[in-house]
Amino acid sequence: VRPSELISGVLAGDRRAIARSITLLEDGDSAGWDVVRGLHSHTGHAFTIGLTGPPGVGKSTLVGGLIAQARESDQDVAVLSVDPSSPFTRGAVLGDRIRLSDHILDARVYMRSMATRGHLGGLSEATSLAMMVLDAAGKDVILLETVGTGQTEVEVAALADTVVLVLMPGSGDAVQALKAGIMEIPDIIVVNKREHPQARVLAKDLRSVLALDRERRGEVPILLTQAPTGEGVAELWTSIGTHRRKTEARGGVSIRRQAQVRTQITRAVMAHLAGQFEDALMTDACVQGVLVAVQNRELDPVTAVERIIHDVFGLGLEDASAVLTRRAATADGQ
Amino acid sequence: VRPSELISGVLAGDRRAIARSITLLEDGDSAGWDVVRGLHSHTGHAFTIGLTGPPGVGKSTLVGGLIAQARESDQDVAVLSVDPSSPFTRGAVLGDRIRLSDHILDARVYMRSMATRGHLGGLSEATSLAMMVLDAAGKDVILLETVGTGQTEVEVAALADTVVLVLMPGSGDAVQALKAGIMEIPDIIVVNKREHPQARVLAKDLRSVLALDRERRGEVPILLTQAPTGEGVAELWTSIGTHRRKTEARGGVSIRRQAQVRTQITRAVMAHLAGQFEDALMTDACVQGVLVAVQNRELDPVTAVERIIHDVFGLGLEDASAVLTRRAATADGQ
After folding, report:
1. Strand order in the sheet with B47-52
2. Residue of B nearest to A310 (CA)
3. Which terminus of chain B is more exposed, N or C, with fewer CB under 10 A?
4. Contact A152/B149, CB-based, under 8 Å?
5. How confident is the model at residue A142 (pLDDT cuts 50, 70, 90)?
6. CA distance A103 to A64
7. Residues 106 through 165 of chain A touching chain B, CB cutoff 8 Å
């Protein structure tokens, strides 16, 4: 299939064209990039909602509930799941599958898991490009589901316009990470499994964590849901809409969009350079020789890095030194 | 202070020289690299123990216990803490401070927290170079403490010869992450706060998670400790020694060392390229123009990335395409 056919297919909302385009992006195939190039002028319509949180808190069930809310408002929906224990792949409980399968036959709901072949920065790059494909395909709402509260997951979730953190009683690690400032404060926090005796205690703990952050204090809604029965999901949908309107009124979406573009381009550039480097690690005799020399302690790692930057990236040592000097100067100036 | 003075200072075990060298590395200062270059041939002696786990599980107290164990064996010890809520900085409870302060006046114990100015990949790079400084300074044991169970923290912990994951009852997220394969299986697992009624339940859960991994099944000790009273700490020290002897007998240390060198060099190369790119983001009019064009949807992100790779890194579009084609071919061949 040629990129031009995929482009017209995606613009017509064809599911197979969408799926093939996203697969090309996962593979880092340049044909996928040609597709994005062709679709770019048709993007800018979709609103993206990121859901993140530890494994097992019921994000997928909540996604099912949000799909239903969006469809009630007659909106087209896409779900991108970058969750390794997602219902699209493995590890989900039966309830989740049933919940999402409600929407499998709905032509206006597109669901898809994302994976990459593990190159540095590749997952968030592929995900942000896949969001553009779904946007160009006419989706009104894109639900971006990530699992875990590590840096990668939070980075991916940050590609969304509204970021929802989902927790449940027992998510103590995540609360500690919020408290320690390791995890960024989301736009909305959901405590799922609200029937659990500790749910209100968790909500209270979260309020006291948020109270420490002067700028955001009182701004981040904490909602209690019971995803399998749908309790609280309509309130979450309303809260997402409120956040959207508030940020749009403040110009927040465009500020966030600027940051997203900067992040997206930075990641893509770094992913491409990392790809080149991975190639060199596998195939370049010079790089392999350098690694063996360091392993045998015949060469120090700093000189090794300089040689590699010189040989693989064609930057002279003087370039590297100039950069280092500039960086050191900046650091001193702080 | 000149690099040559720092080198002789570090080799003499001078605390101030060690501290200044590590600060230079944190700052990405090229003088720090000259120090590493000079120290490199004096490294290869130290054994490193990585401790990682969610915030608040008592890692610092455990570190205090392990320092005492090492000192009883008449070994010189260094602690590198890359924990943002560490006792060296903020957020620790009084008990931890007291515990570590037992060793503050001991000239053969060096304790230090690590931070960087937040460039991509910089923390693990600076940490691995700081470990070389401590190694050259004659430390027998380096305790590397990281907080959290995200990708960055796990990457930093993986720089160690023996990786210990510390959990306590309530660390449900971390157990889920192990189960989902998001977190790598450590060499040793410690359940701290063993007096907690749920401690044995957690240990049992962990055993069933490990039972899923055929290769490692039965190989990963799960120990119960009560760090403040020191219960179980001697057993942990013995278990670390056993792991060290086992891997050395199997040649495992050298295999791990090969992987560490590859990882270390890769991160350093990427960190330097990222540094160049961050500079360009701030100062390069062409890069800024490209970003604005993407923000205004006048330019698609794929073309933007190609232009930046061309302009900042001096790689022609044909280079980029060649790399992409090679990568796509590799992906297809899998």
Report:
1. B109-113, B77-82, B141-146, B47-52, B162-167, B188-191, B222-224
2. B269
3. C
4. no
5. very high
6. 8
7. 117, 120, 128-129, 132, 147-153
- Count each helix (H run) and each strand (E run) in chain B, helices first: 14, 7
- How many residues in total does chain B contain? 334
Q: Which of residues 79-98 of B touch A (CB under 8 A)?
A: 84-85, 91
| Smallest CA–CA distance from A301 into chain B, residue | B265
Higher pLDDT, B172 or A294: A294
B210-233 pLDDT tens trace: 887 777 767 899 999 998 888 999
C-alpha B107/C-alpha B71 separation (Å) is: 11
For residue A83, give Cα distances in angstroms to A120, A121, A175, B246, B303: 17, 16, 20, 36, 29
Measured between CA atoms, how close is A289 to chain B, in angstroms?
A: 12
Beta-bridge mates of residue A169: none
Q: Which of residues 267-296 of A touch B (CB under 8 A)?
A: 268-270, 272-277, 279, 281, 290-291, 294-295
In whole angstroms, give the CA distance from residue A190 to residue A62. 10
Cβ separation B41–A297 shorter than 8 A? yes
Higher pLDDT, A212 or B77: B77
A180 contact B CB<8A:
yes
Per-residue DSSP letters for B224-286?
Answer: E-BGGGTBTHHHHHHHHHHHHHHHHHTTHHHHHHHHHHHHHHHHHHHHHHHHHHHHHHHH-HH
pLDDT value, residue B315: 56
Six-digit token pair at A231? 């309790």
Of A84, A149, A180, Cβ closest to residue B85: A180
Query: The complex's ipTM?
Result: 0.71
The 10 Å Cβ neighbour count of residue B200 is: 13
Distance from CA of A323 to the nearest CA of B (A): 6
Write the CB contacts of A72 (distance below 8 Å, at least 6 apart in sequence). Answer: none
Sign of CA dihedral B121, B124, B127, B133: negative
Q: What is the pTM of this model?
A: 0.69
Cβ neighbours, 10 Å, residue A160: 24
Cβ of residue A179 closer than 8 Å to a chain B Cβ: yes
Say which range, A147-161, A208-222, B266-280, B291-305, has the weakest mean pLDDT.
A147-161
Q: Where are the alpha helices (DSSP H) in B47-171?
A: 59-72, 94-101, 122-136, 151-157
Q: Of B87, B162, B159, B78, whose CA–CA distance to B123 is shortest?
A: B159
pLDDT at B98 over 50: no
- Let me know: does A156 contact A145? Beta carbons within 8 Å: no
- Nearest CB among B43, B152, B268 relative to A305 is that of B268
CA distance A210 to chain B (A): 16
Q: What tokens appear for B78 in the block?
A: 């260094």
pLDDT for B151 equals 63
* Euclidean distance between CA atoms B157 and B282, whole angstroms: 32
